[in-house]
């Protein structure tokens, strides 16, 4: 089609309740930065596999915060929770808190934190 015969696109006005939910999404640069950060955190996690003589409790203490940070970054940026209704953010944070609490309780119930675990 030539320029003259191209159909005209009519811009529709958004409903007022839709306008209230309009927000800026992350830019390509922000996505790239987030991907680099996630890549570095993943490299740290993978590197723990090669650490000789590292205690299991020490690895858990290092890996737990990395897991939480990665979860939050993925949820906030790739699921757009950073820009969404605060209720959704609270639901995910509650789920994360509950998961961490369950892990800690389960590890404590199995005497994971004691020196004799695994030996």
Name the descriptors:
0% strand; mainly alpha; 119 residues; 4 helices
Most strands sheet: none
Low-confidence stretches: none
Radius of gyration based on Cα positions:
23 Å
**How much strand content do the residues show?**
under 5%
Structure summarized in a few sentences:
This protein has 119 residues and is mainly alpha-helical. 60% of the residues lie in helices and 0% in strands.
SSE arrangement:
Elements (H helix, E strand, L loop, with lengths): L15 H4 L8 H20 L8 H23 L7 H24 L10
Description:
This protein has 119 residues and is mainly alpha-helical. It has a domain at 27-109. The chain contains 4 helices and no strands. The protein has helices at residues 16-19, 28-47, 56-78, 86-109. The radius of gyration is 23 Å and the shape is elongated. It starts with 15 loop residues before the first helix and ends in a 10-residue tail after the last helix.
């Amino acid at each position: 089609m030539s320029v003259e015969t191209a159909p005209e696109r009519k811009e529709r006005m958004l409903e007022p309740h839709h306008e209230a939910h309009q927000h800026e999404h992350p830019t390509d640069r922000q996505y790239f930065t987030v991907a680099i950060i996630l890549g570095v955190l993943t490299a740290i996690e993978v590197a723990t596999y090669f650490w000789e003589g590292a205690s299991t409790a020490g690895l858990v203490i290092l890996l737990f915060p990395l897991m939480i940070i990665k979860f939050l970054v993925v949820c906030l940026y790739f699921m757009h929770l950073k820009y969404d209704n605060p209720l959704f953010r609270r639901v995910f944070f509650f789920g994360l808190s509950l998961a961490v609490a369950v892990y800690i309780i389960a590890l404590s119930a199995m005497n994971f934190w004691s020196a004799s675990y695994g030996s």
